[in-house]
Design a protein that fits this description.
The protein is mainly β. The protein has one domain: Hypothetical protein (Archaeosine Trna-guanine Transglycosylase, Chain: A, domain 4). It contains one helix and five strands; from the N terminus they run E-H-E-E-E-E. The chain has a five-stranded mixed sheet. It is globular.
């Protein structure tokens, strides 16, 4: 499964720098280990600005309802697919 998710500029750049390797998201897509995610640059101030999306593979999923993560949300770890 390939998911497409909008990502705000500060987070997008941290991912490009290999300094952010997780996402906290509403789990309305049933994220699973092995799923691919296309992180799409989304600038709320200039919606016409474009950057090449970052493709990642989910390697870990921590579902909500535990460890202070709200039920219905998740944290997933990923690795960049180069």
């Amino acid at each position: 499964m390939i998911h497409q998710l909008k990502t705000l500029p500060p987070y997008f750049y941290r991912i490009l720098e290999d300094k952010k390797l997780f996402e906290v998201r509403k789990n309305d897509r049933d994220f699973q280990i092995g799923d691919e995610v296309e992180l799409i640059y989304f600038n709320t101030e200039d919606k016409n600005e474009y950057k090449q999306p970052i493709r990642v593979e989910i390697i870990y999923v921590l579902n909500g309802g535990q460890f202070g993560i709200k039920k219905g949300y998740c944290v997933f770890g990923f690795k960049i697919i180069r």
